[in-house]
Q: What sequence folds into this?
């Protein structure tokens, strides 16, 4: 069976993807420096899939160590490159840390690929490249807007680096996946999001408020031009998202790509407001989320949701999980984390 290198494989989306890859029989090598994840994630992966992936604690920015890693784990067929820093606010404070980590790691992959005869790369991009789209739902052909943050810029530049590299050398192929807002956890509650410190993203803040770790959720603005005044996003289940990576890898390995660089939106096609998420979370889980409306958060986009038709038709992938089930999984994961913390 083919061997897949998953950088950032102990992270939130990476860990769920490793499970799905192993489920269909791929051999997986994870490279992660644990800068935003925990080694215990490997236990969760093994519990679910019955198989421990190979693991290397390496910084992808370290070219020499990555080179040795490719020597050790010979015959890698494809790379899924998740490894990156992702906190938007932090990227504004520490832009060089973000440019260095996110771009040098990608450049290292692209430089090492021909040396180690790896042709295929899946890249984690983001709906952040669209900024506030002029038309909704947003398709892959929508114009790329000036990035709102150094983080967003690393995704735009990352995409360009891939396109330029492939333009110069047709021995590479890449599938660029633009995720909308990933949420939820594995249905076993063995894997999920592990935010460091105070969460920036909505869902971990909601679950931490529900469990009592945070007193109150702040809803950033109710004066947007949306039906209930709060921002709208396309919340995509993390396991659905993970499955799209398996399909992307299979598409490249089976020579089914239509061009050497393909770009896909990964979203549900439905936009939900912050207040709708809170209400649905409360209803499906039978818990209350204390919240208050506060002023808008700087840099927030008013509304964005995907047109996922291209992924639906070309990849044969659709987001299957309901938002209700997804919000149940988030809550089950938070409760499992609390149980573990108590046991320690
Ligand atoms: P995450 O932080 O949970 O996972 C990233 C993993 O990469 C972590 O385990 C971290 O330790 C590791 N890592 C970071 N820099 C590294 C380096 N230099 N070398 C080795 N390992 C390194 O994040 P995630 O939510 O799983 O995101 C995965 C990818 O998807 C990222 O590229 C992110 O930018 C992108 N993305 C995420 C979202 C989201 O909302 N979660 C949305 C769109 C795109
Ligand atoms: C969602 C909505 C907030 C927290 C970010 C990145 C983006 C992508 C996904 C990687 C917004 C509101 C949030 C809170 C709130 N990541 N909110 N109270 O901002 O859509 O996107 O993550 O590529 O690049 O920018 O996600 O989860 O932070 O916010 O009211 O405590 O929830 O205003 O409307 P966002 P988010």
A:
């Amino acid at each position: 069976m083919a061997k897949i290198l998953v950088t950032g494989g102990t992270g939130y989306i990476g860990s769920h993807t490793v499970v799905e890859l192993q489920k269909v029989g791929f051999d997986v090598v994870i490279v992660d420096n644990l800068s935003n994840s925990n080694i215990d994630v490997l236990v969760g992966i093994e519990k679910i899939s019955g198989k421990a992936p190979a693991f290397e604690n390496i910084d992808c920015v370290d070219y020499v160590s990555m080179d040795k890693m490719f020597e050790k784990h010979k015959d890698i067929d494809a790379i899924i490159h998740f490894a990156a820093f992702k906190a938007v606010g932090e990227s504004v404070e520490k832009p060089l840390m973000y440019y260095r980590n996110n771009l040098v790691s990608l450049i290292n992959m692209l430089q090492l690929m021909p040396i180690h005869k790896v042709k295929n790369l899946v890249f984690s991009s983001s709906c952040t490249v669209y900024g506030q789209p002029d038309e909704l739902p947003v398709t892959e052909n929508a114009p790329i807007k000036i990035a709102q943050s150094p983080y967003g810029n690393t995704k735009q530049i990352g995409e360009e680096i891939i396109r330029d590299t492939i333009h110069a050398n047709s021995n590479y192929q890449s599938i660029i996946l633009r995720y909308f807002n990933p949420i939820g956890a594995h249905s076993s509650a063995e894997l999920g999001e592990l935010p460091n410190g105070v969460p920036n993203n909505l869902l971990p803040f909601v679950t931490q408020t529900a469990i009592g770790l945070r007193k109150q959720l702040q809803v950033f603005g109710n004066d947007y031009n949306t039906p209930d005044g709060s921002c709208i996003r396309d919340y995509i289940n993390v396991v659905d998202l993970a499955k799209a990576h398996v399909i992307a890898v299979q598409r490249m390995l089976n020579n089914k790509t239509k061009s050497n660089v393909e770009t896909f939106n990964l979203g549900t096609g439905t936009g939900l407001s912050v207040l709708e998420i809170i209400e649905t979370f409360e209803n499906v889980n039978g818990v209350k989320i204390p919240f208050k409306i506060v002023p808008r958060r700087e840099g927030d986009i008013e509304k964005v949701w995907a047109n996922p038709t291209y992924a639906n038709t070309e990849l044969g992938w659709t987001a299957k999980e309901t938002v209700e089930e997804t919000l149940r999984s988030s809550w089950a994961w938070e409760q499992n984390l609390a149980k573990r913390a108590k046991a320690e």
User: Anything to note?
Assistant: The first strand starts at residue 3 and ends at 7. The first helix runs from residue 12 to 23.
